[in-house]
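Below is how a single chain appears once it has passed through the pipeline. First comes the sequence as given, then the structure the pipeline wrote out for it. We keep one example in the README because the format questions we get most often are answered faster by looking than by reading.
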Amino acid sequence: MKISASQVRALSAARFDAFVRRAIAFVQEIPGPPIVEAEARALIERARGYGLTFETSIVSYLLAARVLGSDFDQRHPRARHLLEQVCDERYKAEDLRRFCEQALSTPNEAP
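Resulting structure:
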């Protein structure tokens, strides 16, 4: 059995659509306004622009956007610096998680 290039693209698109739905459902568990699919897709593209490709890394970015605001990477120079580093994306995701924890523990100060 041979799978054509168009079938591979369709399967890939279907897998990505399923990931978007799962990611939205996961992130929506945190209180806040609803996230629409278009917003989630835009955030995912921004995450990819920072070199985040693993689903877990992308979800870390979505969670940061959920708790700090969708423009957190523009408002927090340190967050942007963490994301722009050239390193393994697992380190970026972990650094981003720590950044969020610090930002939430000191809400009146920018980490």
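The chain has six helices and no strands.

See the next section for the split statistics.
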